[in-house]
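Predict structure. Chain length: 270.
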Amino acid sequence: MSGISFSDSSVGKSHRCRRFESCSESKNQQDMKDNDYIELDLGDAIMERPHGFTVGNRHFYLYPVTLGKTILLKRLVEELHVNLITMDSEPYIESLRLATQHKDICCRILTYHTMHTKAKIFDNEFVENRTQYFIKNIDTEALAEIMSIILRSDKTSTFMRYLKIDKENERLDQVLRIKNDKNNIYFGGKSVYGSVIDAACERYGWTKEYVVWGIDYTSLKMMLADKSFSIYLSDEELKHLPSRLRVKDRNVINMDDPKNKELIKQEDWR
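Prediction complete.
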């Protein structure tokens, strides 16, 4: 039996890699602010950066999951009966329980996370061989460490809160309540077909194959949630719009004027 050693998939080894080397936080990690972590995680999500690890003498990568892989993994994760409360407060302890009681399922979940194409995912012989390799070569503690990473890898809700997209959605709901569109009747959007697949295909011109198996699911959800659009309100409707929902006009700054140098520095350009 062997453990798992983690490496970073980017050139050079950074502090991001060290986050995977121990289930307990290092001093550097404790010193970093939560927002710094979120910025790093957000950057990784945008780049779809995989994270490498070694088992025995073989090297693998944890790839970002697609919508298709998410649906496939959902069935396996449900078989684990994860205690969400413990996973949130003591992720390694709960992952250790799962790795001990359901090592075969955990190794199969790990296998799917190391596959980057639909063809490999549906190659049953390939999946079985890699799963057996993990079962034979990963000890329980090491498997628990990597499962704590996998089971907490979806950070979409964290990104939504950090970027205040959730607040923007609340603002949208209030605007829609004011909008006088009583003559419009809406249908559909009751399943992932309409709410995600059709929406992405229509907006970006993608094929269903790409939406399900091409783009990573975090990027897909973030793009749909943070898409840019506008809603026209008549003068009468605007009268019912609370002042707190109005977007104040920003002052226009002439960036070519040297006198505005300090004003430019003070702007929040994020």
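Summary: Residues 4-153 form one domain.
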